[in-house]
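Let us work through a complete example step by step.
Step 1: write down the sequence.
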Amino acid sequence: MSWFGIRPRSDPLQQVVDKNQQLLKSEGRGREKDLYFIFDEKTGEIKKGSASDGPQGEVQLAWKDKTVHLIAKRDGNLSSLGQIALKTSLIAVGVSGKDIPEALRETPISPEETFAYVQEILESPHPIDRKAAMRLYQLLYEGPIGEISIQQTDPSHPAVIVKHLVEVFQSVADNPKKAIQKTGIKVGEEFAGMNGSYYLKDLLGNTRFVFKPEAEEYWNPLSHLGYPLGGGAKREQLAYIFARRQGANVPPTLYVEIEGKVGSLQAFVSNATPASYLNASQNKKTLSRISYPELQNLAFLHGGSNNQDVHLGNVLAVEQSDGTYLLYGIDNGYSFGERPLENKVSIDYYHFPQMHAEIDPIVARKILSINAQADAELMRRHGFSEVSIAWRTHSVLFQQEAIKKSQQLEARGKRGLTPFEILKLQSHSLPLLPIGSAGNRKFLIDSFVQIREAHLISKANGHEALTKLTAKTADRQRQEALGMLYTRSII
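Step 2: predict the structure and record it as tokens.
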């Protein structure tokens, strides 16, 4: 475990930070009042030096009762790696971010690089504890980009996430009974609900996060389908990571350790209404205020992660100043299972008008930009099984193949595929077609288009097209897939 508590030892940057720390600490125990280090600007690594090595490019700073001399061997601005390694090393041994040399402030790491680095830490497969959160806070708010960090207001921005995280850690340490409150409906002295879930509040009483400890996953009705008991926290975090990359709205979700318990920590969405209330009105005007690309993108995320718990209570709607609704997908603990539930992923909002419209071009670009192989490697780092990874990969590749087909149809002036058609087809195809087979994905999508076009003329023509395709297909598994197009009412 690293000094952040969350980066593996194999990380080159972490190795540099560790070496710097060890050298600073060991030299700091001596009696010398002046400590000399040679600083490599390219790598960020420091080595023991002497007074004879200076003073060109020297930077001095006070540390405890000593004066530290950092001697640069080359002129020029520090590399990003060098600055991060040096700053984090100094902070780790007790140098406040405010005391970091002015020379470093003159050549700061770009805010974008720092924020990206912090985001990477937040998405680590290792739990973030209070100490790690404080390190991140110091890097963001006590270093050269402190003012820029303070200006951030987007709740999904890493600087805001870290700020709220530190506030909650402080609140929990100060008064855990007040800071941690059980969620759910209280029945007598107990709370109704399957598993442990808690609101975490800051010192002002604002609810900031929802915490779900792994050890309090008492009941899992889908464990036999590849959703291991105790694995919900990891699945929640991964759903957020993929959502962020895809541009879909899932509240920031971290993997943390609080009060000795490890679990998922999801940012609380204030002023939100469950989408079930919007649906209950059956008001087309109300449903039309939901952004088409936003709902479509969320739907492709739910389908691509094989989420088995997509009901309208797990989709939150926040009304904006212009009257439209911003949607958030929550409770993603039943994503990334090892096989779909009864041949389908059930999505409660299939009937919404956004699902039966053409695919928004922005959404299409986002789905086509997903790197399925890179996602597979990320899942391996987070400890997911190869079977779960294979289902995820197949689902994404199926969506991409279907979107490409839809674009080809539209380019020829024909009707493209809707999100409803693609996700229904993808969902039902999972148990029937061997995963990883590009030929089978293309076959089923092309067959669906042929039967649909014939079916649009008449049901009889649709059945005739199905019969012809089935007669040409010797593969029994493909024949079952074709029959599914009618028996499962996809067309």
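Step 3: interpret the result. The first strand starts at residue 34 and ends at 39.
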